[in-house]
Write a structure and sequence with these properties.
Layout lengths: L8 H23 L2 H18 L8 H22 L5 H5 L9 H11 L1 H14 L2 H12 L4 H8 L3 H18 L12
């Protein structure tokens, strides 16, 4: 589908339809925020559309892997910068679509967010105080590392280390989601 989309615009719509829900669930399970995940989804597909001529694969597995690598890159930018840039959307002249409450509830249900909340709450409570507070400031309240360091009275490097250790500890304690890529076929 992706290779065809270079010459057939309808093929990109098919590509979107084939993978959008899987990518969205992948993102929601990682950011635990449907609106942010939907914005990341939009940016992922805008980037895929913009770069579709760079895709060199020939199979559905390869195009899916290529798409998920873009999604992981967008997710990495989001965690690093604390915001969604919307660069690709702007370059192709699109705005991020808005979701209503019914769509948000459906996506949360599909992603199993309700099941993650108690586990996340318990995992956060089990963190050492310094890591828990650093994660709360950086991830929940979305402060930059310099602000986190100032609020905690530590160096920026120490703040980064606390957030990193806290996120690794959370990842070890939370239930592992089924692999999106494995369930794609």
């Amino acid at each position: 589908m992706l290779a065809r989309s270079r010459h057939d615009p309808d093929a990109f719509a098919e590509f979107y339809d084939a993978y959008a829900e899987r990518v969205l669930l992948f993102l929601v399970r990682r950011v635990l925020d449907v609106d942010a995940a939907f914005d990341l989804l939009s940016e992922t597909f805008a980037t895929a559309l913009e770069r579709r001529h760079q895709f060199r694969g020939s199979s559905a597995e390869q195009e899916q892997s290529w798409l998920f690598s873009i999604a992981r890159s967008e997710l990495s930018h989001f965690w690093r910068d604390g915001r969604i840039e919307r660069v690709a959307l702007a370059r192709i002249g699109l705005g991020a679509p808005e979701l209503g409450d019914p769509e948000i509830e459906r996506i949360e249900q599909l992603a199993g967010i309700g099941e993650l909340v108690p586990a996340l709450r318990d995992a956060m409570a089990a963190l050492p105080e310094d890591q828990r507070r650093a994660v709360e400031l950086r991830i929940v309240e979305e402060h930059g590392y310099a602000e986190v360091a100032f609020m905690l009275g530590v160096s920026e490097q120490t703040a980064r280390a606390r957030v990193s250790r806290g996120l690794r500890a959370l990842a070890r304690r939370l239930p592992k989601p089924a692999s999106v890529i494995e369930t794609a076929a």
